[in-house]
Description:
Layout: H1 2-24, H2 29-39, H3 44-52, H4 55-64, H5 66-90, H6 102-110, H7 112-122, H8 126-138, H9 140-147, H10 170-200, H11 208-214, H12 232-242, H13 245-251, E1 263-264, E2 267-268
Antiparallel strand pairs: 1-2
Helix pairs in contact: 1-5, 4-5, 6-7, 8-10
Amino acid sequence: MVFILIVAAWTGLGVAGFTGLLHLIPRLGGVGRGLAAWLCRAPGLDVLVSLLTWVPPTTLGIVLGWRGLVGSIAGQIAGMMVWMFVHEMANREHVRAGRPRIVTFLNRTVGRFNNHVALWVTVLSLPVFIVIRVAEIFVYPWLTLLVGLPRYKQAEWVNVSRQKFNGLVGHDLIWCLYCDWMTGVYSLGAEMLRNVESFWCPIKFATGKKCDHCKLDFPDINGGWVEAGGTMGEVVATMEKMYDKETTRARGNAWFGHPVRLTVKGKAE
């Protein structure tokens, strides 16, 4: 137990110190501002998220075993709590009684206990989003190379900016940044999956409810996919129309409603 507490203490100090450094970097002139901007967008943000999430417990778990893993996670939580407290103390004008805050409203609406426990429950999904992000970086590019699915400037999707919102501090800020990152990762993954679905399987689901539920994320369901009662001839005809060689060279094998399909060689389709 003592060993776990020691690991937790050192990890907590490391996290708190590292987050303090992140506040210092933008104050280091032009170079510092440039580095801060890089850390707010992929791939710099990928490095930052890794250092604050999976790298410490993975490294200490390998080196020190399960006690290193448990101690590291406990230290990360403690370090985050310390940062929230310090940040709120440094921005007391935004947290004094009567000032509008997200956490205050939600505590009042659903109860303090429910709100805070629910937030920590969302952390259990963190490994899922990390795996999705790994797939976006290392798996999807192979599909671009092999079958011509469109490339993306991933930094346009995977970035954080809510730290710029006036009055968002401490508790509210850290959780909003978490959502900021998750939303970008999810949206990019959904965009990539739209290409995958329309390229390989442009057939509507036989279950109408599933089509209704999925059409928001997959607009091609009602924008070109073949009816569930159709024929394979219709499927191949759809693919021939959407992925003929001439237009593929101009726009890549994007999903049917992708913006690049609005024009081919400068002319509206």
